[in-house]
Each structure stands twice: as C-alpha cells, then as structure tokens.
Design goal:
The protein is α+β, with helices and mostly antiparallel strands. 44% of the residues lie in helices and 12% in strands. Helix 3 packs across helix 5, helix 5 runs parallel beside helix 7 and helix 9 crosses helix 10. It is globular, with a radius of gyration of 25 Å.
Length: 370
C-alpha cells in the first residue's frame, strides 16, 4: 500500500496530524462568510477572535472558496487529510493564476503530484509544492509572466530571520544583470559585501534623505522604519544627527489646523510601528494619519486624537464600517463586530519601549504592572 508518511496507518502521531489537518480545513469552511458579507469586516471578526494575521485569514478563506474549482484534488485532500493549510494555501494561490480553461489540467496535475507513489513516501514541503506550481504556470500559462512586467521599478522590503531586511527591486532582465555585475565588481574592489557596496553608492549621491531616529541626543536607539539600533549603529547615527525635536513637548502639542505639525507627525509615528487596527501589519511609514474623532465632528488635531491607519482601513473608517474611540491612556478602542479590542502602541515612544529619560523605578513599576 502506498502512502505518505503523514498517512502512516500504524503511527499515532501521523493519525493525529491528519485529524488536525481535517479539523483545520473544516474550521475554515465554517469561517467562510456569506457571499454578501463585507470582506474587510469579516476578516476583522476572525482576526479579533483568533489573533491570526489578516493575510493568513484571507489566504485560508480563499482556499476554501477555490477548492471546489479543483474537484478531483479537493476529493483527494478530503480522503487523505495529508495537507495542512500552509500547503493548501500555496496551491490555491498558484491556482488563482491559472486560467479557467486550464483548471482541469491543473486539477489533474495536482492529483498526480500529491498522490503517493511509494510506501512511506515523504510529503513535499510547502516550498517544494510552490515551486512545482510555478513550474506548471511557466509551462502551461506563459501569459502570466507578462503580468509581472507591470511591476518593474517597484521595491519590496521583507524582514529576514537574522533580523535584517531583504530588498527586492523589480527591473528588466538587462538592468538586473547590470546592477548585479556592478555591485559584485564594487564588492571586489572595495573588499566588502554587495549590500555595503550599494550603501556606499547611495550615501555618495547628492540626494537628500531625511530619516528620524528616536532616543536621547547622545544615544539614538531606534531608526525610522522599524530598526532598533545596536551599540555600534547608535554611535554611527549619532554622528549623522542634524536637528532634534522634543518629543515630550510634542505629546501635548495642539494646532488649530487640520494637518498635524511636523513634530506631531514624528511623535505619532514614534508611538506606533504599524497601522493602529488590531492585526494589521502595514508599517506606519505606509499609513495615513487619521483623526480618531473626525475633524469634521470637532475632533482636535493633537496626538491623543490621531493614529496611523493604512489606506484600506482608513477607507473603512471613513465609510463608518470601522469604529474606534480614543482612551485617556493614549490607547485606541476598536469595536469589531461589537467586540471591544484595545490597540496599544508599540513603537519606540510607547510606554513599553521608551527607556531614555525614564527613571529606573518608574520603568520597573510599569513593566511589573504590565
């Protein structure tokens, strides 16, 4: 009898994993909203109750909606229970790129690939499955590559496991070859890494770049963009500081204008790392500053009444599909499907992260209280 190791009939751990996979898939089927339900509100409801990332929720909901489009593969998954949601999501994500007229072929391809061919066969990892999906698309859906051409010139940043950042720049193939060759040659000439070579080029350009650091004048601790500085990095950025702002004063700032002042913007972005909505991971640098109590309804322009919202959630709030209220301690209360959820700032100026200019006793007291 052929089977994947996760379907080993004599292994109780394998049996438990299969049961977990089936239970998880059944859970997401139950979480599927009605077709006429508001998408964002539905995801917010699940996010509030589970604490799961919004992207994962959206991917799982898409999977349970898309699986019926692959009937043979769907039956195989239900029969064997060998695939967890990570693998299923990788498959449905690729399936979304397959034209309708090629789905029957894609369905057969999946069944063939994910049916065991030997006794105790190792189940492919999600990354291997994703690679096979890319192979299918490259071979059978060549038009898909044309869609990526519109992404040329975009830059993406992603945190890596070592605490650094991976930077991806989309360009033409010719430009990519030229960039790679130039960085590799400069790395050899300067005896440094390609990343350092790129940084040397950038720092040598006449372009003016403004970045905010948070901390004391002699010890910056945090760099705008979500980077906590090491001791060596702190010493470096200290030498590049050209002006300072009193963030304690900014906390109490007020203006009659609609737009926050420069100091307010720096302060508010120092309070938060991401969009203020619970579960949203959009970086504060990519958010808009929103009046919690709307300006048109008498909401003042002062830090306690302003928080960052990504464009998506800003639109939701403007349309009154998302409700929130400022609290006296500087947090924000959201009501999501009638459930109260408090959003607590976690940026470098928040109560839990600000250490400079703080007395030891006060710091320990609030840490213990937390």
């Amino acid at each position: 009898m052929f089977y994947f190791t996760v379907n080993n009939p004599n292994d109780p751990i394998s049996a438990e994993i299969v049961e977990t996979n089936r239970r998880d898939l059944a859970f997401w089927h139950r979480m599927r909203p009605d077709d006429d339900a508001d998408l964002a509100t539905s995801i917010n409801k699940i996010c509030t109750r589970t604490g799961l990332p919004r992207k994962l929720i959206a991917a799982c909901l898409f999977s349970v909606c898309f699986l019926p489009c692959l009937p043979n593969f769907h039956r195989l998954v239900e029969k064997l229970g060998h695939l967890d949601m990570a693998r299923i999501n990788a498959i449905t994500k690729a399936g979304g790129k397959v034209p309708i007229e090629k789905r029957e072929l894609f369905d057969a391809y999946l069944v063939d690939y994910l049916t065991p061919r030997a006794e105790a066969q190792c189940l492919p990892q999600a990354s291997s499955i994703a690679a096979m999906m890319r192979k299918f698309i490259a071979q059978h859906c060549p038009d898909d590559s044309a869609a990526s051409a519109s992404e040329e010139g975009t830059i993406r940043y992603r945190r890596n496991k070592k605490g650094g950042v991976s930077i991806t720049i989309d360009s033409t193939a010719a430009e990519g070859v030229e960039i790679k060759a130039a960085l590799e040659q400069m790395s050899k000439d300067k005896k440094c890494t390609p990343g350092t070579s790129l940084l040397k080029i950038i720092r040598g350009l006449p372009t003016k770049v403004v970045l905010n650091t948070y901390g004391s004048k002699d010890k910056p601790e945090y760099l705008e963009g979500g980077v906590w500085l090491s001791k060596e990095q702190s010493e470096f950025w200290k030498t590049r500081t050209t002006s300072g702002h009193d963030m304690d004063a900014a906390h109490f700032a007020y203006t009659d204008a609609y737009a926050p002042t420069k100091e307010m913007r720096i302060y508010i972005k120092g309070l938060h790392r991401t969009c203020s909505v619970p579960g949203c991971c959009v970086a504060v640098e990519n958010c808009q500053l929103d009046h919690i109590i709307p300006w048109g309804k008498g909401g003042p322009t002062t830090p306690w009444n302003i928080h960052p919202l990504c464009v998506f959630h800003h639109i939701q709030k403007t349309e009154e599909r998302l409700k929130c209220y400022p609290l006296p301690d500087g947090t924000v209360l959201f009501l999501i499907d009638g459930i109260p959820v408090v959003s607590i700032p976690d940026g470098p100026l928040s109560r839990s992260n600000k250490t400079w200019g703080t007395k030891f006793g006060d710091y320990m007291e609030r840490k213990i209280a937390a």
